[in-house]
């Protein structure tokens, strides 16, 4: 029992000495690795502030208190906190030695990232490097101390274990009979013996005893520590376990990017040439202590946990022609720039291997060299893209990025555009083939011919397009680029090409043609017309002639290109290969010269026009556009005062713009110039008009009437016409007939200046006579007042036409609305006296127009009242009024309006129509009454029992809002009394004075008689206190007014109202007696009228007062 217990204790001690894997410990290690190496510094600070993670994590930190002095005060505190976190926790987890270099490298990267936010970036990076070197040296020393302490502790533990094993064996009780216990003891013995043996071995022998996982871990350790000599010896002595691609992956992953490439260039050469050399004394540099203590299983696990980067960069995965060394160098360059931002280290790495691969040379020239020049040489003050970003740029985006600095530069920096093309863009062009291949490979196998995207422009085409588009906004920048850059062959590759040509001869010729075409196209996009722009365009044109070996002087006899059209000037077509106006050649150069000189000529004529507009005008051949341009130029010249020499020079320039100095022209043009669609006579006529307007009469005579040499430019008849036309323009614009003022003065001066040269012209003589007569009449004046005539008649006529149109369309409601709302009686004007009518010039005419207006108004109302619709429905319900009765009521309302508007001699015509409507209404009411009685009789007979037929007279309900005064019918005596009063005023005017002198008793009598009248008619109908004029009173006034206008009208009006149209009254008295004898007739129609009102008022809605009171007036004629 004692021996068994002793064996168990021995095995327990052996188990404690072997490394174990705890799941919780593994999770803790993963979290620690993530916090130190994976997450950003901001995320780490957030976790640190919240103590996020397992409780075993040590968050203590002294910041940067132990770091060197920081005179600039750069903020490295967060970086120091994470560095301390890594040191403390990796020591607690016994992983400090293997990860120490990686923690230090991450610390440096954190500080470099902080330097991006600092103002003095270079000083910040230098300080960060000092920090890094300090912690690296201190950490290495501390790691050695920890390693020695651990080794001493493990040796002590091993000795104790051995003593326990020996005791057990000596006593013969260690293992009993179990074979497993014996085998374990033997393995432990072998391990102990191996440890004792290896501790005394040579370092090279120790290295040979290590397994492959141990060698990989040792290589990682050397790479992390930047120990190139030890790594060189290791890879040379254990080359079978460390293949080339594995070594390169270790270097990519663990060799610090800030490590000087010169320190491991020789080692890379050995790897590239497969000539590994361990060095002179490998034992001096080899140290396997960091891995020799690891068991095989532990070493395999750590080897498996290594996260090695692939040698091939993802961006260049499709480059099959690259070997593994080239892939490593490209990937290492990207890592150096991404991790440190020290792009200047990349040439130290790549240049020694340029002869290793042509691809590598092309990649360095097209990718690294342009970015180096932008970042360190040309624009060090500006931020630039990273190597990863720059390598991914293609097409227009790449061109825009490379020119971004010069486009946003100010002043003299814009002159560097040619330098940028030579030193940045041109080297970048050398990699066009490789970029195109990468672009096609990234599209994948799914990109078929049918699904192929539209043609993407090449890199050179994108450059030419950029120059063209830039000329539209900044011609000076484009001109500088073309003037100082000699074309596609002008490249500054820094000598790295070593005599190689990246553009073959055929492509060179094609690119030169496109370059010259781009320069020509730039001139067609010039939209500014100021003098500096024209001078810049002239210099650009001279540069084009120099590139194409053409003579600068223009050949003005060269006709315009006949195959050209305005569509060729569209921006997207300027760079087409078949564009005749931009294809480099003699004809296109001459056309551009002429257009440029035309723009300069127009600028000197004070009317600047851009070259693009002139080119479009020349190709469009629009006569109206060219004559408009000529007139605007001449008008601009006339706006300022000029002498004869200036006008002569302007005329010569305009004629040159017309024919460009040559008599040759196309068949469809009159000349070859900008104004070639015009005839010469049109140009000369406009110039002649301007000279006359500017009062340059001697120059007109010298040029157009009596020239010193040759024939006159215009016929004398045309000159005479222009002179007289200008004279009459001044004459028509004159506001005073005096020839010494204004337009008359200009007209008289023009005629006087040219009259001696046209002494036999009858038109000149008539013009002179007209001016003399106008001058003589200017001393007399006739003031004419503006009047407003026929306005009322016109308005009435238009309304009448609208009413007629509505009736023709069977739209009675519209006609009714127009009559009721628009044909209202006009306000009567005071009657003028006879004396005023006798001496008034326009009163009679005015009355005639007013009569015409009223005549149109009342006739339109009469036509509407006479209208009878054939489409009116005869069906109705018990809850609604009959439509025929409703229509009759509307017609009678229109007739009442016509009666108010009609003149006295037409009242009989209106009343005839009224009588017809009344007869029709009476018939309808009678039929309705009869039908109702028949219905009631039939109902009585059907009722059970006996009922006494009783007629209950129902008092009609008065309408809400209307007084009882208005419901009483107006008696005919009231009408007669009003007529008599009106007649007495007109027949006996002398009574007015007597009436005015009557006493208060007479007024009382009048008031009492007024009260008596109110008993027989509507209450208050004759009262002057009623503020509202009812339509019934308007009808009464119209009737009495018409009767009072004369005895003839009175006789005819009253005679018709009494039923006899031929009845003639000799005196007023008998007529009144006849009227009184007929009053009894009104009682027979009273019941019918009351019934009609009760049945129709329920469903009839009229605006304003009703006109049914006029029914009483019409019925009392009986």
From TrEMBL:
Q: Which GO terms describe its cellular component?
A: endoplasmic reticulum
Signal peptide from the UniProt entry: 1-17
Its protein name is Sec39 domain-containing protein
The organism named in the record is Phaeosphaeria nodorum (strain SN15 / ATCC MYA-4574 / FGSC 10173)
Q: Which UniProt keywords apply?
A: Endoplasmic reticulum, Protein transport, Signal, Transport
Q: Which PANTHER family match?
A: PROTEIN TRANSPORT PROTEIN SEC39, SECRETED PROTEIN
Compositionally biased tracts (Low complexity): 1006-1023
Indicate the principal place this protein occupies in or around the cell: endoplasmic reticulum
Q: Alphabetically, which GO biological process terms does the record hold?
A: arachidonate secretion; phospholipid metabolic process; protein transport; retrograde vesicle-mediated transport, Golgi to endoplasmic reticulum
Q: Where is the Sec39 domain?
A: 216-786, 791-934
Q: Which intervals of the chain are annotated as region Disordered?
A: 997-1030
Q: Which GO terms describe its molecular function?
A: phospholipase A2 activity
- Quote the subcellular location field of this record: Endoplasmic reticulum
